[in-house]
């Protein structure tokens, strides 16, 4: 009888070990296969996260980017995290969008951050979109250089030859059309290029493309060991009201996604001009409402 009980204990122990190995394997390589009831350390409810990119400040002598987060608001995105549908939808708002800024009348949307900080920008976006902004991340683009280098570069298709020189900033962009594995500096050059007929609108499309590629690359099993360093690096170059625990859960959720689970949108419209603001972007409110209703609710 004792021997039977011992054999049963050994079988139970072996079964627990096998299940533990299977769970570890699934969590590392196929986390999406883990049932939601036993899944831990990931996002469980929808979130709307404001991501604000600031301008890079450059050293006047060397032209190199300075590691600071005190630049002007340069890009504005809303990330809708949808754990039930395994999706991240990204809405880009052109920085020259002419909108109502609470308490300050009609302004370019990037003025909201200057006039009242991140809180006023969140309020402006909530009134524009009807969405509740749960959290924010303010990013200096210098973090892109760091993250891409940590990941060993990212594979990206450069849609056309990009050649531009600005000697005042010691800026030399020379990217050829085609597939490339770009390092951090080359990725930054790709993001900074705006000297074509599409201007800022083309740059928004490139921002979304790079963001998606970084997410997918970071989520690959071969890069999972780099996640803690990537998160630590990111926290050194961003301002956010997300806790470290929330960032980890967000990173774990991203690991369950593939490229087809990321969807990018832009607040469309047409260019215009203002007597006191210069060039502006006039948002098509009807199209924006449709995008919000179909993809961000």
Automatic annotation (TrEMBL):
InterPro entries recorded: LytR/CpsA/Psr_CW_biosynth (IPR050922), LytR_CpsA_psr (IPR004474)
Bilayer-crossing regions: 12-34
Gene3D superfamilies the UniProt entry points to: LCP protein
Residue intervals of the Cell envelope-related transcriptional attenuator domain: 72-218
UniProt keywords, alphabetically: Membrane, Transmembrane, Transmembrane helix
Superkingdom classification of source: Bacteria
Pfam families for this protein: LytR_cpsA_psr
PANTHER family named among the record's database cross-references: POLYISOPRENYL-TEICHOIC ACID--PEPTIDOGLYCAN TEICHOIC ACID TRANSFERASE TAGU (PTHR33392:SF6)
Similarity comment: Belongs to the LytR/CpsA/Psr (LCP) family.
Record-given protein name: Cell envelope-related transcriptional attenuator domain-containing protein
Protein's organism: candidate division WOR-1 bacterium RIFOXYB2_FULL_48_7
């Amino acid at each position: 009888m004792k021997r039977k009980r011992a054999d049963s204990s050994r079988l139970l122990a072996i079964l627990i070990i096998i299940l533990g190995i299977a769970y570890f394997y699934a969590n590392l390589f196929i986390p999406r296969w883990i049932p939601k009831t036993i899944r831990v350390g990931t996002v469980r409810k929808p979130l709307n996260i404001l991501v604000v990119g600031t301008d890079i400040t450059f050293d006047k002598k060397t032209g190199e980017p300075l590691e600071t987060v005190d630049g002007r608001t340069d890009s504005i995105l809303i990330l809708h995290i949808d754990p039930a549908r395994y999706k991240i939808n990204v809405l880009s708002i052109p920085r020259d969008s002419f909108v109502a800024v609470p308490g300050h009348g009609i302004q370019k949307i990037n003025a909201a951050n200057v006039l009242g900080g991140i809180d006023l920008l969140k309020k402006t976006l909530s009134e524009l979109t009807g969405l509740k902004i749960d959290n924010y991340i303010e990013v200096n683009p210098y973090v892109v250089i760091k993250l891409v280098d940590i990941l060993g570069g990212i594979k990206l298709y450069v849609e056309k030859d990009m050649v531009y020189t600005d000697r005042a900033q010691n800026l030399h962009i020379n990217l050829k059309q085609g597939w490339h594995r770009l390092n951090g500096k080359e990725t930054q050059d790709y993001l900074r290029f705006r000297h074509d007929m599409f201007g800022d609108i083309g740059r928004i499309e490139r921002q979304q493309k790079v963001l998606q590629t970084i997410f997918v690359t970071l989520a690959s099993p071969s890069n999972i060991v780099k996640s803690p360093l990537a998160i630590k690096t990111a926290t050194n170059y961003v301002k956010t009201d997300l806790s470290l625990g929330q960032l980890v859960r967000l990173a774990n959720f991203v690991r369950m996604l593939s490229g087809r689970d990321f969807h990018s949108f832009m607040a469309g419209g047409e260019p215009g001009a203002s007597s006191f603001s210069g060039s502006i972007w006039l948002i098509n409110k009807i199209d924006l409402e449709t995008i919000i209703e179909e993809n961000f609710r």
